Amino acid sequence: MNQKPIIALDFPSKREVKYFLEKFPKEESLFVKVGMELFYQEGPEIVRWLKALNHSVFLDLKLHDIPNTVKSAMSGLAKLGVDITNVHAAGGIDMMVAAKEGLIAGTKTGEKVPELIAVTQLTSTSEAAMHKDQLIEVSLQESVIHYAQCAKKAGLDGVVCSALEVSMIHEATEEAFICLTPGIRPKGSAVGDQKRVMTPADAKVIGSNYIVVGRPITQSENPYESYLSIKKEWNGE
Ligand code: C5P
């Protein structure tokens, strides 16, 4: 097995991304995550550029709007050739179905439809805040499971979740339902603002399908070395 950890390109502009990627061998094909910070500065061109460099792209824009708008937006994102993208499950089943339809419509014949995953409850949302702000009365865990099941029903490929939620989500859906997990820290690295973290090796054991790693690679003195060591651990080598 040779799975790539997804590197979160949390940089303000292409200039910083370019500087960062120069620390990797040219021929090394990576899997990177582009989020709102970078996308809203550089626009779709940043995705085209990364794809042209032979990298896979998880475009983390967390769409949440009326079904028709999300469908059209997704069709455009599929045309960029993204490999994974996402929506908020709170947008509802109809919106998620429309998102998937948009991705299928925008994918060139013969190419793979991007994987579509849902955000359940943001990990920054506490149970108390969920009760107060969203008037959801069940526990945070029940809400996460409910959203994961809605995503599955809508035909999505999986969810973004904390590594600590993977087993319960796989149990409530199916083993093949993707659990993409951020909050990954190799032993001994700084936790930063992440509250609940897991090592790449433990994430593998509990069944994460993809891991997203940002600062332990982007802020490292030697990003390529850190990447290789995380990749090795993630692949159980
Ligand atoms: O630097 P770090 O490894 O903490 O970066 C994790 C990445 O995953 C960031 O881009 C962050 O926004 C994202 N993320 C997260 N927790 C979530 C969802 C996304 O850390 N629940």
From TrEMBL:
GO (cellular component) term, any one: cytosol
Catalytic activity: orotidine 5'-phosphate + H(+) = UMP + CO2
Binding site for substrate: 10, 33, 60-69, 123, 185, 194, 214-215
Gene Ontology biological process terms, A to Z: 'de novo' pyrimidine nucleobase biosynthetic process; 'de novo' UMP biosynthetic process
Stated family: Belongs to the OMP decarboxylase family. Type 1 subfamily.
Source species of the chain: Enterococcus rivorum
GO molecular function: orotidine-5'-phosphate decarboxylase activity
Record bears the keyword Lyase: yes
Record PROSITE patterns: OMPDECASE (PS00156)
Protein name: Orotidine 5'-phosphate decarboxylase
EC number(s) recorded for this UniProt protein: 4.1.1.23
Oligomer status and interactors: Homodimer.
Pfam families (alphabetical): OMPdecase
Function: Catalyzes the decarboxylation of orotidine 5'-monophosphate (OMP) to uridine 5'-monophosphate (UMP).
Top-rank taxon: Bacteria
Keywords annotated in UniProt: Decarboxylase, Lyase, Pyrimidine biosynthesis
Top-level enzyme category: lyase
SUPFAM superfamilies: Ribulose-phoshate binding barrel
Active site residues according to the UniProt entry: D60 (for ompdecase activity), K62 (proton donor), K62 (for ompdecase activity), D65 (for ompdecase activity)
Gene this chain is encoded by: pyrF
InterPro entries assigned: Aldolase_TIM (IPR013785), OMPdecase (IPR014732), OMPdecase_AS (IPR018089), OMPdecase_bac (IPR047596), OMPdeCOase_dom (IPR001754), RibuloseP-bd_barrel (IPR011060)
Domain (Orotidine 5'-phosphate decarboxylase) ranges: 4-230
SMART domains (UniProt xref): OMPdecase (SM00934)
Ranges that cross the membrane: none
Pathway participation: Pyrimidine metabolism; UMP biosynthesis via de novo pathway; UMP from orotate: step 2/2
HAMAP family, per the entry: OMPdecase_type1_B
